[in-house]
């Protein structure tokens, strides 16, 4: 899923209709393990052109996925985040931390 499509999906997550939110969650769950998904979320988080609410949803999605999947608790479990994505995320995190408004 490209960044503009992901923004639309994240915007739908703010819909007050529970059925719409459920469909949005299913869509996000479907794409969360694809390569560069986390990188796209971070791109949205730092994009000042995106609405703040969408950026907040992206940051929550990012945080939740990282918390569950950055390093598997079980050593026999496969890694769900590609090393290349982790490297890019580390670089973006540094950019975010050092970004001045």
From TrEMBL:
<protein>
    <submittedName>
        <fullName>Enhanced miRNA activity 1, SUPER SENSITIVE TO ABA AND DROUGHT2, UNARMED 9</fullName>
    </submittedName>
</protein>
<dbReference type="Pfam" id="PF03810">
    <property type="entry name" value="IBN_N"/>
</dbReference>
<dbReference type="GO" id="GO:0031267">
    <property type="term" value="F:small GTPase binding"/>
</dbReference>
<keyword id="KW-0813">Transport</keyword>
<dbReference type="GO" id="GO:0006606">
    <property type="term" value="P:protein import into nucleus"/>
</dbReference>
<dbReference type="InterPro" id="IPR001494">
    <property type="entry name" value="Importin-beta_N"/>
</dbReference>
<dbReference type="GO" id="GO:0005635">
    <property type="term" value="C:nuclear envelope"/>
</dbReference>
<keyword id="KW-0653">Protein transport</keyword>
<dbReference type="InterPro" id="IPR016024">
    <property type="entry name" value="ARM-type_fold"/>
</dbReference>
<dbReference type="GO" id="GO:0005829">
    <property type="term" value="C:cytosol"/>
</dbReference>
<keyword id="KW-0539">Nucleus</keyword>
<keyword id="KW-0963">Cytoplasm</keyword>
<feature type="domain" description="Importin N-terminal">
    <location>
        <begin position="24"/>
        <end position="99"/>
    </location>
</feature>
<dbReference type="InterPro" id="IPR011989">
    <property type="entry name" value="ARM-like"/>
</dbReference>
């Amino acid at each position: 899923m490209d960044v503009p499509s992901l923004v639309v999906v994240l915007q739908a997550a703010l819909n007050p209709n529970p059925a719409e939110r459920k469909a949005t969650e299913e869509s996000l769950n479907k794409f969360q393990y694809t390569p560069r998904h986390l990188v796209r979320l971070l791109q949205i988080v730092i994009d000042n052109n995106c609405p703040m609410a969408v950026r907040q949803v992206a940051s929550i999605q990012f945080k939740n996925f990282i918390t569950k999947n950055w390093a598997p608790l079980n050593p026999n479990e496969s890694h769900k985040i590609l090393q290349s994505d982790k490297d890019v995320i580390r670089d973006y995190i540094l950019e975010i931390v050092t970004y001045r408004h």
